[in-house]
Amino acid sequence: MRLTRGALLVAAGALAPALLFTTPAFATGTAPEAVVAASPADGTPVDQMSEEELRIAILRILADEDTGRGVTREANEALDGTVEDMREFLKSGYRLAQAEDDRVAIVRIIGDPDSGRGVKREATKALDTNTPEALRAFLETGHRLAQAEDDRVAVARILADPTISAALRAAAEDVIDGTPEELRYFLETGRYEV
Question: Signal sequence span per UniProt (predicted)?
């Protein structure tokens, strides 16, 4: 069994980059949904997948460098189990294990001393809601938007300082209504370039 798993892992590892670059989820920069990751490229439903297809789908999940401990643990248990164990993992176990990993990531964000009030507030809401969808939504978009809120507050504090230079004031005024990325760039780099 170990030799077969090793061969499949090597094959999945070799194929993973090509498969990742051709999927629409990669192009959008969002994390793939459990169903997308669990289905082969031809769209075969999990119930109709062969044992080999099930193993390859799970190995693709394991080959992803962003796969967390919970997903890794559950995927390996599914690979060690029966065909039905693998199907169950792809249908619901992956989603639940990903939610466990997402909870850990959100708790780390809350505990980060650099996280602002907006980020902590939204992270706490996601944890209180405690659904896999709410957790994933916070990590994919909510964190970025809450960080932008905190960054706007930081830029406003810069503007409130009467001792800043005219150039820094002008740069801060230009960016305060900008995108989350523009705000982050200004706070991390741009304000030091003025």
Answer: 1-27
Q: Domain map of the chain by residue range?
A: 2-101, 112-194
d(CA 42, CA 83) in angstroms, rounded, equals 20
Identify the CA nearest to 60 among candidates 47, 44, 43, 41: 41
Q: Is the alpha carbon torsion for 29, 35, 39, 44 positive or negative?
A: negative
pLDDT (tens digit per residue) in 112-132: 999 999 999 999 999 999 899
- SS3 category, 24: helix
What gap in Å lies between CA 24 and CA 99, rounded to an integer? 22
The Cα 82–Cα 55 span in angstroms is 11
Instruction: Please say whether the dihedral angle defined by the alpha carbons of residues 48, 57, 93 and 27, taken in this order, is positive or negative.
Output: negative
Instruction: Select from 100, 149, 140, 154 the least CA-distant residue to 121.
Output: 149
Question: The tokens of 171 are what?
Answer: 């740069």
Amino acid (1-letter code) at residue 49: M
- Residue 168 CB coordination number (10 Å): 18
